[in-house]
Design a protein that fits this description.
The structure is a homodimer. In chain A, α3 runs parallel beside α9. The first copy, chain A, has three domains: about 180 residues, FAD/NAD(P)-binding domain, CATH 3.50.50; about 170 residues, Polyamine Oxidase, Chain A, domain 2; about 90 residues, de novo design (two linked rop proteins) (Up-down Bundle), CATH 1.20.1440.240. In chain A, about 30% of the residues lie in helices and about 20% in strands. Chain A is globular and about 80 Å long. The longest helix of chain A has 24 residues. The first copy, chain A, is an alpha/beta fold. In chain A, a hairpin with a 4-residue loop joins β13 and β14. At the A-B interface, α1, α4, β8, α5 and α6 of A face α1, α4, β8, α5 and α6 of B. Chains A, B: It comes from Spirosoma taeanense.
Chain lengths: ~525, ~525
Amino acid sequence: MTRRDFINSTSASYASLLAWGMLPSAPASAMNLPANGRTSEGKGRKVVILGAGLAGMATAYELGKLGYDCTVLEARSRSGGRVWTIRGGTKETEMNGGTDQTCRFEDGLYFNGGAARIPHHHQLTLQYCRELNVPLEIFNGNNEAAYLYNDGGTGDFANRRLRIKEYHNDMRGYTSELLAKALDQSALDQQLTKEDIEKLVDFLKNEGDLNTNHLYKGTNRRGYKAKNEPGAGTAPGEVTDPYGLTDLLRSGFMQPVFYNVGDYIYEQQTTLMQPVGGMDAIPRAFEKKLTGKILFNAPVTELRKTENGVRVVYQKGGKPQELTAEFCVCTLPLPMLKNLESDLSGTVKRAADFVPYIKTGKIGLQFKRRFWEEDDWIYGGISRTNMDINQIWYPSFGFQGKKGVLIGYYNFYSRAEAIGAMPVAEREKLALTQGSKIHPQYPSEFENSFSLAWHRVPYSGGGWATYDDATRRKYYPALLEPDDNIYFAGEHTTYLTAWMAGALTSARRAVEAIHARVGEYTKK
Amino acid sequence: MTRRDFINSTSASYASLLAWGMLPSAPASAMNLPANGRTSEGKGRKVVILGAGLAGMATAYELGKLGYDCTVLEARSRSGGRVWTIRGGTKETEMNGGTDQTCRFEDGLYFNGGAARIPHHHQLTLQYCRELNVPLEIFNGNNEAAYLYNDGGTGDFANRRLRIKEYHNDMRGYTSELLAKALDQSALDQQLTKEDIEKLVDFLKNEGDLNTNHLYKGTNRRGYKAKNEPGAGTAPGEVTDPYGLTDLLRSGFMQPVFYNVGDYIYEQQTTLMQPVGGMDAIPRAFEKKLTGKILFNAPVTELRKTENGVRVVYQKGGKPQELTAEFCVCTLPLPMLKNLESDLSGTVKRAADFVPYIKTGKIGLQFKRRFWEEDDWIYGGISRTNMDINQIWYPSFGFQGKKGVLIGYYNFYSRAEAIGAMPVAEREKLALTQGSKIHPQYPSEFENSFSLAWHRVPYSGGGWATYDDATRRKYYPALLEPDDNIYFAGEHTTYLTAWMAGALTSARRAVEAIHARVGEYTKK
């Protein structure tokens, strides 16, 4: 039986197709570790977990299933760590002399200050949403109607916004035209047969929407003229004119900041998801499963090795408290671990010192009208600019509501550092001034804001771990092995840095490692 | 003051920017016709409206605002016409000996049998959703994780599904490589300067994700190997290998049926929307505003001109009834108008006879598990195939729920005619047999189905009007003018055929025309 015969047979079972490699890996499912022949070998064994972010809570949740006695120490009064939804009443004071902020968004309005999207292939995140009953909706990452805005620069495109769909379709059109021309001239015929070239030219005609002479002359894919959309009666609509290729090439939109990576790169391809009502629905769902196991407002100050395990000192009500356990799972972000008094090994301490974390910031802006929807036809998605604000994110929920909150900047590295160093009032002013160039409705519609600079957020101290080949080689391995009875988890212990899926998969990895070790003990 | 200075000034008002042509047209808004100086000139004037689809109901709603006394005659027991959501309990018997069908979907499951998406630029549809408080969510039209499946054919791609993202990224990669090569060889240098060529090559490197030698060797944009996604610890993930260009060109995927028009064509570009809970939320919202004005189960049998207006004969409780009015707005689809006894002019009758309507069908399939999400990571979007089923639509709601309904075929013309001619049990069998080639989980997960062939659906008789240049020239104009006191509305009287926005804009056009005429009267 050939592969083709096989797949043609509609009676092929799921399992057999899997065996033939014709299906993706089995669906992510609830973690269900075998107890090595005993149901209770985790029972009563004490584990202290540092941090009630996703990594810490997933660890406690999974170890709990196996009977371990877990305590999670959390410095903040909330769970979730860098999974944090900002809404009316949210309070924060950043480190290094930050202003006290209290969010004044209206009921039902919010933005996700940290993690904000779930790729469709992050099956572990999706699995936990399923397991914990977190309802999801689509996060609209790629919106052809959003804008590109090149501030400064020269030429017709300077200081002018254009729709992503205009840029996309023009570039597709011209590049298809050029390649079709090169193929027509047989410039490339050493590589392809005549028939294949014809097929490729046909493809390019569709790809670029070329005319019968293989020329790109614009097309309704890029939109209609204002007030001249197709309509009733005698209104067929009037198509807009394309920009010129040379103009586009000199427009500045080839810079990486404008490059619409979202359509293409793996993590941002459609489909992306978000929990209904805010990303913190995920940590809140974990928290519900861990009643009584999380100590809040309990920052860890010391992490010590003992003969039989670990001893942790933390503050509670202004007083030092102690907790001993057989194992520790430490999920603290490295910028926090760096400053912790500990018996950690030199290699771990060096990783904490030298793995860089990204500086990044966001501001949520509340407007009294959703002008981006009403005036600009933008429902979710991202506008891009070379200004300091970098990106504007439009909310993928509450469509056509009265008011709305958009993310007025989302930036990284030196820009985030510069803006993060400003008082919150100045950040707001910058977001409004620059954003007004893209949306002139800003000044008349703005109501209030809430901003954050993750590198200044207490107990986080950065956006996420950013490895390159050298740091991955030099420091990463130390975080993968237990340091005596101390295990490490968190996005920084994965190849999914920055993502919730990283935190979650790292938790399962730590749980597996501890449980395997306990299994070895109990076999002895 | 230059344009640039102007737009740089953040104090620029919305109105002044509009005047400079820097903003799209003003937001769509509630219709608010001036009453030509009198507030009550519509008052008491009788209008009979044929059909309680969107065109008919919007006409009654807007005329009602102006004081007209409207009665809507609707042949069915429901409003909405071709805006129809199929859920448990939906009953239908198609014309020409159709089987009685009663839908057995579980509570909360449904599919939109007719209109199913709202483009972001269909501002009139969005305006009515706003005005009538219909909450919206995103319709995920373009999903890079959905499949292409080429049935039959030859080569490696025959009878094998691949992810749209694989095809997209491979074709982008190879065409970018080829064009970069042609540019490197200066094959095109008569058109572009050296600097522009360099910029274009830079663009192509990003567009196709080419390596430093400008070659496409595959990239993680197209995905990771099964069970080898990036993960925790020592799992960086393993990228899949690209298909060969020649193989792709010969794969059959250049055929129009596979061409992923959704990314590109204007009506299907992101963002698309849908009402929460089903498209019939829109007709139900109109219906609420028209209490007592719609006569259901009242099929029209005669449309007559009188000295002062119109006389309409309709059936009610098996008996003919009559209704006279000053004006009639006829929104019947042309296949229905064709068979109506009437005094309509010859040009209108010829339009009804000769404007073709598309044959089209859909089937909703209920499965006991959302395997497309759990196993295949597909959350909304469309798979495409050259089989008779043509497309599979995955629901953009109820993500991660227990059961789900997908649309097992959506096809047109001869395929829709052939499948529509089958008994419903055979349609179901065909959808399952062909769909199983893409989703081998079908046989074990299937529960029940509901299918429809719009050309056989009573009181519709077709999908939508399909004009070409000749029919637009020859027949369309007759539908734009009143035939004495009879006005025409419906998607067939617009350049937005097939779309709800067409029905709605046609309604406003009819209202404007009647009200202008009444204004002329009252001035006399």
